[in-house]
Amino acid sequence: MERVPILVVDDRRENLVAIEAVLTGRGYELVFASSGDAALHEILHHEFAAMLIDVHMPGMDGFELATVIKQRKRSRHTPIIFLTAAAPDLEHIYRGYSVGAVDYMTKPLDADVLRAKVEIFAEMLRKDRRIRAQAEELRVARERELAAIHAQRYRNLAEAIPQIVWTAGPDGAITYFNARWADLTGNPTERALGWGWLAMIDADDAARFEEGWRAGVGSGKIFELDCRLRGRWHLCRAVPELERGEIVAWLGTFTDFDELHLARDAAERSVRVRDEFLSIASHELRTPITTLQLRLQSLGRDVTSEKLDSSLRQTRRLIALVDNLLDVSRIGRGQLVLQRETFDFAAMTRELVNRFSDLAATANVPLHIRADSPIEGCWDRVRVEQILENLLGNAIKYAPNAPVEVEVTADDAVVRVAVRDRGPGIAIEDQVRIFEPFEHAVSPRNYGGLGLGLYIARQYAEAHAGRLALESTGSEGSSFTVELARDATALPAGSGTMISRAP
Length: 503
What we know:
CATH superfamily of the largest domain: Histidine kinase-like ATPase, C-terminal domain
Number of strands: 19
Shape: elongated
CATH topology of the largest domain: Heat Shock Protein 90
Radius of gyration: 45 Å
Distance between the termini: 80 Å
CATH class of the largest domain: Alpha Beta
Structural class: alpha/beta
Number of helices: 15
Strand content: 15-25%
Number of domains: 4
Largest sheet: 5 strands, parallel
Oligomer: single chain
Helix content: 40-55%
């Protein structure tokens, strides 16, 4: 017989002993309390079939205890039988029922009556527990039935999908493949379970894919990797299924993207062909332009004219444009080479600012320079000059009739050049975009140019283990700051360094 707990509350020890003698051996778990506080403590830990409570107790009496018991959700429906040493009057009876009692018994207790009443409530609790247990069994059975229905529905859905669908355990071993696996690979599903499926991945991809999958399982994150199955490219994607934060399974697919992969390869080949064309075209264009420049310079020693100056300026502009295209091609192919040499950075900057003095005067732009000297370091002088030429040229072009300040500082690690103008500034939404190739902060119809200057300047700065940064409020001018690693001893003068760039 299932044992059920009965709470007995009485401040007199002899009364507790008497009740124990009556109820012991009847399938009850008797819990005794000698005060109301002790009884409340027991109620927190047990579900009682009935409570036998003495009405008259010091401190918290039986009525007060019953009131508190009925206020608690867990115990509000537990039957309470009041025990009293005196015959209860109607007032006590009414009060007892008002606080939730179901019966009154007078001491000395009639043993047979007490056993009968307690047994009724004990059997009620046993039946209630059986009903709850049956309800729980029905709930679990229903959940299993629904899970089976859902599993079959998902299995049917997986079989209807044209992709290969699979599941795996937490360790990455395959537990299910839909029929598409066998259709594509010719490998029966039962032979592919566990780790047998790896044999169907093309030999050139097998080791890479297995290493990637095992690493993905260890990371617990969404997994994506491509491979070839029977010679066709597939994208494998898997997501972890979690329960209480723990991975219990993986759900994945293999999606055929062979045509897309071929198209991507063709596009990459087209990009390489384009870059090769730009490189060849740049070299072919630069040769006659350089010859023209030399002839115009020779002519300039004998003849001075406005047309000659204009021709020289246009020639220099053409050379700059071609150089920019050539450099973009080199950067895209990862073939930018730095020819390092040791020189005084401050002196170089002052010379460059002087070369821009005529252009600045034409635009009514006062040029100011502050530079500590000397600042020795090892850089590619041509590339560094091109960075500063782009920044000075932009400052004069986009902020005419306002001063431009150039400040050079250095410490043991880096050299910094800040070029500040007082122009209209650059809008916040444009401050990232303008460092991309062929981008302009303003319409190129008004200012011209290919939109490559800042892109190339940033690439050159990063190739020197540095950076190019912009600060602008969008209304009160702009400040471009170049930081270059100061490394005069890492490489000998004139040495070449290959800078690899992703296309």
